[in-house]
Write a structure and sequence with these properties.
The chain is α/β, with parallel strands linked by helices. The chain is built from 15 helices and 17 strands. The strands form 5 sheets. The chain has a 7-stranded mixed sheet with strand order 4-10-9-8-7-5-6, with helices on both faces. It catalyses: (sulfur carrier)-H + L-cysteine = (sulfur carrier)-SH + L-alanine.
Length: 432
């Protein structure tokens, strides 16, 4: 949670930061200044990040962990230095961070590694990852599809059963039910750190404790927490976690899987080929320790360098201050929405902890129509089910309209969103 002793960013500081983001300065939509409130989907990129990727291609472009020439050594050094920087950002060691294309790939990597272990790969060291009929995989009703479908598929491949922790009437996890769902047959508990629909924070220690009592492994989706909160993944007590670069000022095409070293070294690889092996014959292959064992093929080199620059940018601002800023914006959103007639706030009520994100249901108006009205006023938001259909279904909804903030969002941005949202029902003639 944001520290109460750390002040949020001031409007002056935020406006100064915005100068680093070309797309946020001078861009208009339908003649209106852009208000970008879709950072939960993807964040804008500062010039430092754009320049870092370009600089790599201009001066250090070469394959990593292959050539012995000077340029290849420099590229490899940049690649591994990026790993060190990003790993440190989440409290991890270098060997604990695996590069992926995105968080979705990271979750699939874990699920397929468990599947390969179940098929007998990995020997005795992989025994704890094996699933059998009667075993249970637990996720939650609040998950993004990326942290649900891979587990559905793993259950289908292994004969294990899939169970889930339900949500309450506000879309938040029912922690009392969690104690009933997680039991002696549970082998994996996969859950989100922050909901991409409600903005609610999960009680991670509580779920970790329940999982440890049964010996289950925990997998954390940290996509909506690592960009917005100070996060120490080892300190949270989870076993494995994923996050995406493009949500934290970095480029697309890069994400990370974090895991405890002893687990990563024991997990059978998912993708195989060059760079991740020690010895190959025509009959078999032996694999490198983590993280290399999960990084087959040509690497996402320039993207890692740019993501490291994004981390440096966030560190320079200060994650405690970023969190405090977004906490304040989240409260401003929740309080403003609560005052609007015919508009339902999804998730924690005003005053409760949330990140700077809020989804709404406007009575009598489909979310896509809400989004179009807002877009015509220059306000960019996300509409739809946000890759969380089960959560919406549990709330009796098919779609919502979501506003999400970041360190470059001003209080004025939030107020413009609220002002335009207030007029949606009357625009469609359903007010009153």
């Amino acid at each position: 949670m944001p520290s109460t002793t750390v002040p949020p960013l001031t409007d002056t500081e935020v406006r100064a930061l915005r100068e680093d983001f070309p797309l946020l300065t001078g861009t208009e939509v339908m003649g209106a200044p852009l208000v970008y409130l879709d950072s939960g989907a993807t964040a804008q990129k500062p010039l430092a990040v754009l320049d870092a990727e370009r600089e790599f291609y201009l001066h250090r472009n070469a394959a990593v962990h292959r050539g012995a020439h000077t340029l290849a050594v420099e590229a490899t050094d940049a690649y591994e230095e990026a790993r060190r920087v990003v790993a440190g950002f989440v409290g991890a060691g270098e060997r604990e961070l695996v590069w992926t294309s995105n968080a979705t790939e990271g979750l699939n990597l874990i699920a397929y590694a468990f599947s390969n272990a179940t098929a007998g790969r990995g020997g005795q060291a992989a025994e704890r990852f094996r699933l059998r009929p009667g075993d249970e995989i637990v996720t939650t009703e609040a998950e993004h599809h990326a942290n649900l479908i891979p587990w559905q598929e793993l259950a289908a491949r292994t004969g294990a059963s899939l169970r889930w922790i339900p949500v309450d009437g506000t879309g938040q996890l029912d922690h009392e039910a969690a104690a009933r769902v997680i039991g002696e047959r549970t082998k994996v508990v996969a859950f989100t750190h922050v909901s991409n629909v409600t903005g609610a924070l999960t009680d991670v220690p509580a779920l970790v404790e329940l999982a440890r009592e049964t010996g289950a492994l925990t997998v954390l989706d940290a996509c909506q927490s690592v960009p917005h909160l100070p996060v120490d993944l080892p300190g949270l007590g989870v076993d494995l976690a994923v996050f995406s670069g493009h949500k934290m000022l970095g480029p697309t095409g890069i994400g990370a899987l974090w895991g405890r070293t002893e687990l990563l070294d024991a997990m059978p690889p998912f993708l195989t080929g060059g760079s991740m092996i020690t010895r190959v014959t025509m009959e078999e292959a032996e694999y490198l320790p983590a993280p290399a064992r999960f990084e087959a093929g040509t690497q996402r080199i320039a993207q890692t360098v740019a993501l490291a620059e994004a981390v440096r940018y966030l560190r320079a601002v200060g994650m405690e201050r970023v969190a405090a800023h977004e906490h304040a914006l989240g409260q401003r959103l929740a309080e403003g929405i609560a005052d609007l007639e015919g508009v339902r706030l999804i998730g924690p009520p005003p005053g409760a902890d949330r990140v700077g994100l809020a989804a709404v249901d406007v009575a009598g108006v489909h979310a896509h129509d809400v989004g179009q009205v807002l877009d015509a006023a220059g306000v960019a938001v996300r509409v739809g089910h946000h890759c969380a259909q089960p959560l919406h279904r549990a709330l009796g909804l098919t779609a919502t309209t979501r506003a999400s903030t970041y360190l470059y969002t001003t209080a004025e941005d939030v107020d413009r969103f609220l002002a335009e949202l207030a007029g949606v029902r009357s625009y469609f003639g359903v007010a009153g």
